[in-house]
Every structure is written in C-alpha cells, then in structure tokens.
Amino acid sequence: MDRRKTNRFFGGAQIAGAAAMSFMHGAQDGQKFIGVLFLGIAFAGGHNSVSGMEIPVWLMLLCSIVMAVGTSIGGEKIIKSVGMNMVKLERYQGFSADLAGAICLLYSSLMGVPVSTTHTKTSAIMGVGAVKRVSAINFGVVKDMMLTWIFTFPGCGLISFCMAKYLCTYLDNRRNTNVKKQDDYYFDNFMKCAEYSCKAAYLLKEILTEFQPEEISKKMEEIHEIERQADTQRHEITDKLAKAFITPIEREDIIALSHHIDDVTDKIEEVLIRVYINNVQEMCQEVFLMLDVVIECCEELQTLLKEFKNFKHSKELKPSIIRMNTLEEKEDELFISSMRKLHVEEQDVRNIIAWREIYTYLEKCADACEHVADIVGSVAMKNS
To answer: Are both 145 and 192 inside the same structural domain?
Structure first.
C-alpha cells in the first residue's frame, strides 16, 4: 500500500478523530465545569438545589471559551509529553487513539458515568504504541504521569480542604461583624412597626375621649397617615428581605411578623372608620374599657419585640407572651359582656349594628397582637 496515500488519508481522518475527541472532552470535562459553576450560581441565588433550573447559555459559552483558551495556552507541553515523549506516534496510530478514546468517552457519557478524559486518551495512546512492541513506550514518562495522578488525589483534596477551611473562617468572621448589623435591622424594624401601632392606639384614645362627630373625617386622615407610615416600614422590611442572602430567622417568619404587626395598626384604624361609617354621635363606657386593653396590648407588643431581639437568651420573652395572652382573654371577656349589654339594653337597631362592628374591631386589635406573640413564641421554639 502506498504510504503517501495512507498518510494523506489518515491525516484527514486524524482531524476528524481529533474533532470527535474534542467534542467528547467537552461532553465529559465541560459538563463537570458547568455543573460546579451552575451549583454555585444556584446557591448564590438562595436555592437549595438545581432542580427545575435551566443552565444559562452564557455559562455554557463561558466554559467553552475558557476550555478552548486553556487548551491553546497550556496544551502544547502536554501534547509533547504524551504524543511524542511517551510514544512516537504515526498518523494511523494517532487516529486510532482518537477514535478509541472518543468511543469510550461517548459510551461513558451516554451511561452518565463521569470519567477522566486525560486517563482515557493516555491509555489509548499507550495501547496503540504497544502494537509494534511494548518497549516502544517510554515507561519513564508513564511512571511520572501515574505518580502525578496518584498524588493529585490527596494533593487536591488537601488544598481544597485548606481553602474551604480558610474561607469558612473568613466568612464566619465577616458574618459576625456584618450579619449582626443585618440581623439587628429586622428586629429594629419590627419594633418600629410596633411603635406605629402604639401611636395609632394613643391617637384613637385621644379622639374618642375628646369626641366631636363633626371632626371625625379630619381625625381619620391623621390616623391614616400613621397607618401609611407603618405600611412603608413593612415594605422596607420585605424589600430588604428580597435582597438578603442570610436572615436571622426564616423568611416566612419575617414576612408573617411584619404582616401581623402592621395588621394591628390596620385594625385600630378600622375602629375609627366604623365610628365614622355608622355616624356615631356619642361614646359609651364599654368602648374605653376595651380600648384601654388594646393600648396595654400595644405596649406589651413593644416590650415583647424588644426582648425578641435577644430571643435565644432572653428570660422575659416567655412571660411577655403569657401577659399578651392574658390581655387578649381580658379583651374577650369585655367583648362578650359589652355585646350582651348592647343586645339587652339597646333598642335602636342602628345603634346595635354600629356598636357591634366597633366592639368587633376592638377585639380584633387584641387578637392581632396575640397573633404576633404566637409567631414570636413559635420562632423562639424553632430556633432554641
């Protein structure tokens, strides 16, 4: 057979074989790189796994470009060691090694088994080199490569352990300094939300004590401004939460707490709205009795949230929750007695409807405070 023709044929075939080998190199090693980076992206985005996520195109392009650049820069020495120093290859041998390596990698990829492309290709080259005679293989180079492979496992493991240990210590130190401020942000804003509830309760007491029916619409604007400020405070918490990577308590608990604290202010505003809607012309004693309990609940809410900041070590948190439950029970008793008196003594149906709504919303104010206390107790139990 004409050697020039065979060299010409295998010269072209070797290009195809090298292309197949490069493709399978991407199918194996490229997927490992993408997998590690994709997992990092998922963790950085707050996901616990990559389930249901799609690999972004830019990540695939990035890995392809980086692998190509790395091969072109550092591949020459490796090619010289494996393809020239270890075995003197002819064109047909190079094609055979490429084809054998590509087939093995294709089978492994289809089976979902991660293997080393370097080990596969080196073994294929050694195989074709031993066709003529085993002595054609430079076992000195083989020994150096095998020793490198052996020491790579513990070496890389040790380096990665040291890096992870250092980064873990570094991040812990950063977290102790920076995350403390982030943690305080949520607890401080919980207390600010509770302050708005107290302001609304004090203002409601002032309006009803100095009750002037013709001024109610104006007073509603004042209490609505407090409610609007409370809403703004709650939105700030949720906006901060959306950008936060680490939170002092579970995200669901932060959302629930901010919602229920804001709900206290909403319910207090609703009391005045019901007074206005029902065109109440004079106050009754039962309203003030129930409102005083609501004010006590709001003040206890401030105490509770102040202790919540240090819930893992606070000794006053549990007694505060108990006091809140007691106040809510007191409000329930006042609600029942007030409703009973209303239906027994009042003859005007319109007044019955009006005061039923007002009493109901006053009782809901106490309920909203107790809901906050229940969430605080649940969070403290889960994180103790």
So the answer is: no
Tell me the DSSP string of 71-125. Answer: HHHHHHHHHHIIIIII----HHHHHHHHHHHHHHHHHHHHHT----HHHHHHHHH
pLDDT in tens, the chain (384 residues): 556 667 677 777 777 777 777 777 677 777 777 777 777 777 766 666 667 777 788 888 887 788 777 777 766 666 666 656 666 667 777 777 777 877 887 877 788 777 777 767 677 777 776 666 666 676 766 676 677 667 777 777 788 788 877 777 776 666 555 555 566 888 889 999 999 999 999 999 999 999 999 989 899 999 999 999 999 999 988 888 888 777 888 888 999 999 999 999 999 999 999 999 999 999 999 999 999 999 999 999 999 999 888 888 888 889 999 999 999 999 999 999 999 999 999 889 999 999 999 999 999 999 999 999 999 999 888 887
**Number of domains making up the chain:** 2
Q: Examine the fold and report which residue of 139, 156, 173 is the final residue of a domain before the chain moves on.
A: 156
**Owning domain of residue 145:** 3-156
Do 201 and 344 lie in one domain? The reply is yes
Q: Structure pTM?
A: 0.56
Residues 198 and 334 in one domain: yes
E strand spans, 185-320: none
Kindly give, in sequence order, each residue whose CB lies less than 8 Å from that of residue 259, ignoring residues fewer than 6 positions away. 234
